[in-house]
Amino acid sequence: MRLNKNIRQTLRIAKIELSSMFYSPVAWLILVIFALLIGYDYANVFDGQLHSQSLGNNLWNVSSAIYNSWMTGILKPILRNLYLYIPLITMGLMSREYQSGSVKLLYSSPIKNSSIILGKYLAMMCYGAALMSIIGLNVLFSWLTVDNFQISMLLVAMLGIYLLILAYSAIGLFMSTLTAYQVVAAIGTLAVLAVLNFIGDVGQGIDFVRDITFWLSIYGRSTSFIDGLLPSADVMYFLIVIGLFLALSIFKLNTEKKIMSMRTKVLKYSMIVVSALLLGYLTSLPQMKLYYDGTYTKTNTLAPESQKVIQNLKGPLTITTYVNILAPDYFSGLPFNRNYDLARFERYMRFKPEIKMKYVYYYHNANNAELDARYPDLNDEERARALCDISHLNFKMFKSPEEIDKIIDLSGEGYQFVRIVEQENGRKEVLRLFSDNERHPREGEITATLKRFVAKAPMVAFSTGYGSRSINNYGGRGYYLFARDLWFRHSLLNQGFDTREINLDEEKLTDDISVLVISDLKEALSEKALANVKDFVDRGGNMVILGEYERSENMNSLGALFGVHFSDGVLAHPNKLGAPVVLCASYTDEAVEKHSAFNRMQAWGYGVSVPTAVALDYSQVKDFEVYPVLVTGDSAWIEHETKDMVDGEFVCNPAAGEKEGNYAVLINLSRKIGDKEQRIIISGDSDFITNEEFGLTRPGMEVNNFEVITGSFRWLSYDAYPIYTDRIGAIDNGINLSEGWRVWIKLFFMILFPAFLVGTGVTIIYRRQRK
pLDDT exceeding 70 applies to what percent of the chain? Predict the structure, then answer.
């Protein structure tokens, strides 16, 4: 019965507070401004999508484009501006009672302080719901008009915004209990919000302090909600912050009614704060975290292949980051960036919370040209001390070269920024940074490293001798970059493969070789080497055979094993912007249908640059299923007359047997041998995956040669590597409205609806004044 009485008192106070709130022009003014800003952004973004569709463009992922895209999304600006609205409402919640003296009546009445605070907070919850209804109106409109609208993602996003409003409201309510002056309460609320936004940068170099201040920070807490992810840790953060400030508000009123010593007050305030921090710590533990991904494409979750790898990992896993202050990327691993670095592995910790992160700091010469230029006269220790002074670091935390060499040998990694992933049994694998703009590994590279613990890495063997391209050659024609470069993201080594060289005359091709690569034979294979290859093929071994212009005679001895013939002339095509012998090969529809990586490249309009390639004739293939992957297009021909690749004139001459047509440059072959499907890739070009070709920009050509490696070797490894991290495609790719709706959408959201709020507010306030 008493509980019911308290609830009735709470609801009555909430009703009175709501009446007072909506009889004030401030509340209505904020609603109108909020509606105007959101309506303006929404109408413009929706108009842009509708106009693009009317022009015949294909829309994609419309829900994200409107709401959470980093370029056009309307919700993230709302998060940045909310702090301006809420203090204007909360500043009078208790300050007005103090100012008018009505608080004495509340104290003298049989109403509990908790009912007073909760009643006023309930009123703010209702006002927050009114703000959310403005967002909900355009969400409802999008749901009705966008194909397969991602309503679950938007509901999660709206929950994040609402929780942020409630947290701001609780803070504002507490500040309102501290002073009778509304302006002071508003300024105080803004000050507290500023502290909570920036406190995450305080004490990041100290382990214990970093954990506390990072948890206290409200900055970015709703960002994951906007992206469609519902993390339990952030939900609990908002609930704890709300509970903390409501408890502080109730206790503040209690101190007004009861006489307490300063010691007692400090003790009780401290108990409330410490309890909140303890609860926050417990709910932030990886083992306590839960997640819900509201996106249709599950973009916030590890891809299924990554999840499978994590599920198969047994026992604890430790990732030790070795940070060399003399290496280029040391900044990423410094203590004040620790939490941001940990966030890179949060998706993995979601499925394997027992992952432990460790950091080891040291200094060692890493051949850093930037430091050589900046500190030419300093030795390594002096350079390390200078960098410590700049970054306000304690030099004592960095191990000397001698100390780090006793712990681990990092010479093979060039003493760069590197992570060592270690299982409980002591097995280790290396996770590197890469020499591109992104630097840090993506999901594909991280999962490829972890998969080495649960599956044997496929071995790719490259033949040596006979003029073949070498994987140890970093020159323009070498294969070092794509095969084994430690710091090249797309190298086979970093995508989960092992690589080695093999002498076909001296070493037998054993079954532990997953793929054999033979390229650019300047000399014909010996009988022994050819017999070695034939035996490997007969046993079902997978191969990559890469031909080249002027090598056809030598390559045809290999091609004959499969019924494939390399043409004698070089492929050419009309090219006003470059050499005629440099072609942009395109993916065939059959290849696109079978390989998701090629599908993406075709959709984006990318081809593959193939310089001095020869055509492949596969009309005599009998025992294999065969289909072309890359073709030249109808304007190409096989040039027989011109031999000068630089200054020669390339013109299709039918009299010389030259004929324009669509020629195959790369083909896939497959057949069943026992229980295994044998897979062979044959190319008429060896240059398209060289070190030089990866670094060139071909005028007039949209090319991406990385993906042909990704798709080809994934096919050769039976879809095991590289790791496939693509998500299912978005299905909200259209709007069920004609272009004629554009003007009405702008009229409603930018003018009519805000005007309706103005009219409603004026009417209610006018009627109140009449009474």
Answer: 98
